[in-house]
């Protein structure tokens, strides 16, 4: 069987959504005949004429029009060329789409795809992981798939559910990550996954960092420490139960994220465990994030800016000694 | 064409204009009197939050409301009480929203001018100016996807909002997509307190229409008849496939930005200029001069407006208040995700 990449899974999910549901359309910069900056919509404009549309470079108008189409019965998928650019449409996302159902009782089912995360040489404005700023706002669902299977099934679920979804797809995984085939069944959004079981500590993470954490678990296993890796899959809502159950088993927590440290997902994980599961902890909960600077350009700086298997392993070894 | 048919057509057109003008005037009157009521409720401390009136803008607002049909899209702004009523909003809905009734369309979760019924194509504005324009674009795109033609969407903004990125992005988008969008710009010389010379440098806002590749119109916003004509022209052109239409109306706001604002910054010379005319009075004088209405009828109409408004206010004041213990406190529509999201 031929293998399928994370990027191909995203394209396949969009093709399926377009084929299955006449309400679905795709709107974004260069997504039409060109097939998108990363080729996530390659060939779709030809397969689905009139339903995969190039937009002007106007993130506010892209999201605003998606809101209008969604409340009028459509299921738009918006491709932001880079997650970093989505903040130009931030107002429409957080003040309009997110608040719409609460204010009016009319659902606003839009999916906004954010090619997120660092790749070597991306620099400050093509590397950001900004799921936390969207998770902060009530009314949004924020998904961060870490696997080919999740990229496919969660994108289909994002299109199907009645809420605005921020779908953070990791650019580093686009072509690096492969699976044998597309999944036929899937875990629902909102549920975290035990990516690897272990008894000695829990690493809670998401997106590309899941793979770094799995490498660490492999390394530490050789040293006699069994790390349990929890893949959050969905940042909001956050599956507190799965996190808490894991910490109850291991007594130790390390939350890892590629995003900046101030506030954010790892802070939320630590806060929940510390406030609701303090008695489960055998050591102070730890967190590891990117450095509190813009994302650097040169690979030497970039690889030191964000957590890597090496820095996560160091943090994990430190935690096991606490 | 026989002379008989031609004169009949003129007579029909005359009757149509007469009927439409009278309908517009009655709505303007109701909107003005409803605004006056909101103002007095505000002063009596009965309204939480701000009160924003359309005083001086009723002629323009009612005209765009009447240029739309059921099935069209309308995204009004803060001074569009008259347009809202013309598009089908009831006094009761407006009062319920201002007084925060859970029975209102926004169920006390949002208030004052932030009201609408999206299912009916009537959009509740957010406060961020220009933000409603692309939403109307999107609704029009949705209609086009479904093969629905013969539909237009209108939205209203002020001179200040023309400086926003949202305005620019959305008008450019509407131009690219050739959408049947009507943007009504009320240039009332001030965005809150900021005069237009601190807002834009172009000679006239309507010149921007050329840049977006869309049709531009100008109108005296104090003249009901001119407003009715230009909005109908724009609506007909958009409906016929003529693409986006921009209407720039000039008028003066005859009140503060909100009722908290004494508007002391407004140049007194503007108040005595033709733009400072009260469009309601101008329309009334003209209707009387044309003998399309008489004074006793006008007082009957005023009486009827008062009765409708007072009945709505007293009804809403007897309605239950929003109860935090009955509130769901759920922001998501997907219930299975909402449950997981509870702390």
Distance between the ends of chain A = 46 Å
Q: What name goes with the CATH superfamily of chain B?
A: Thiamin diphosphate (ThDP)-binding fold, Pyr/PP domains
- Number of H/I helices of chain A: 12
Helix proportion of residues of chain A, in percent? 25-40%
CATH domain class name of the largest domain in chain A: Alpha Beta
| Mean of pLDDT of chain A | 97
Mean pLDDT of chain B: 96
Topology of chain A as a string of helices (H) and strands (E): EHEHEHEHEHEHEHEEEHEEHEHEHH
Question: Looking across the biggest beta sheet of chain B, what order are the strands in?
Answer: 1-2-3-7-6
CATH fold node name of chain B: Rossmann fold
CATH architectural name of the largest domain in chain A: 3-Layer(aba) Sandwich
**SS content category of chain A:** alpha/beta
The CATH topology of the largest domain in chain A turns out to be Rossmann fold
Which two chains form the greatest contact, residue counts included?
A-B, 53 and 44 residues
Strand content of chain B: 5-15%
The overall strand count of chain B is 7
> How many distinct domains of chain A?
2
Shape of chain B: globular
Q: What share of the residues of chain B lie within helices?
A: 40-55%
